[in-house]
Task: inverse folding
């Protein structure tokens, strides 16, 4: 035991998971998975002229291909982040029980000590902005693909790199906005 009460472990786990680690790490993981998938799928459609065929048939490819993906990202990224926050807090609790010999009531006391419902809303808004960024970037790079299979791979890589960087920039923006 030190100068800081042990129950602050719960506070630290809760605040860091909800405000930072949950949204950012989940966003980065989804940028690699979802952003790459969108860019590869749309890039392949562009290279094989499926998008041109949609335009020829009178469909708006943005409304038909991009809008559903963007809406799905904005809606589902917060759901995945909420799940990740819960799993992260559960992991912190198990770690505190086993490594710090901390009791559950002590951990929960720390978790509740500085808990604000605003933090959860803020985390979910942050996640929605990450979902918007990842899906828009993936769609942009997919639509801009030209060439063959090699170009699809290049577009996919660019989408993941730009999405990951944008998540970190958005996180910094949200951190400044929170202050």
Result:
């Amino acid at each position: 035991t030190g100068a800081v009460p042990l129950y602050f472990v719960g506070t630290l786990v809760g605040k860091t998971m909800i405000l930072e680690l949950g949204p950012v790490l989940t966003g980065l993981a989804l940028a690699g998975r979802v952003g790459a998938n969108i860019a590869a799928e749309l890039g392949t459609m562009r290279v094989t002229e499926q998008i041109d065929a949609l335009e020829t048939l009178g469909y708006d490819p943005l409304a038909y291909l991009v809008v559903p993906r963007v809406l799905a990202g904005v809606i589902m990224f917060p759901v995945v982040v909420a799940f990740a926050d819960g799993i992260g807090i559960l992991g912190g609790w198990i770690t505190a029980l086993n490594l710090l010999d901390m009791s559950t009531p002590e951990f929960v006391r720390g978790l509740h000590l500085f808990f604000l419902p605003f933090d959860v809303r803020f985390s979910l808004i942050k996640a929605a902005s990450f979902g918007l960024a990842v899906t828009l970037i993936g769609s942009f790079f997919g639509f801009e693909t030209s060439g063959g299979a090699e170009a699809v791979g290049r577009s996919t890589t660019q989408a993941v790199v730009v999405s990951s960087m944008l998540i970190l920039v958005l996180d910094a923006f949200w951190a400044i906005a929170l202050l």
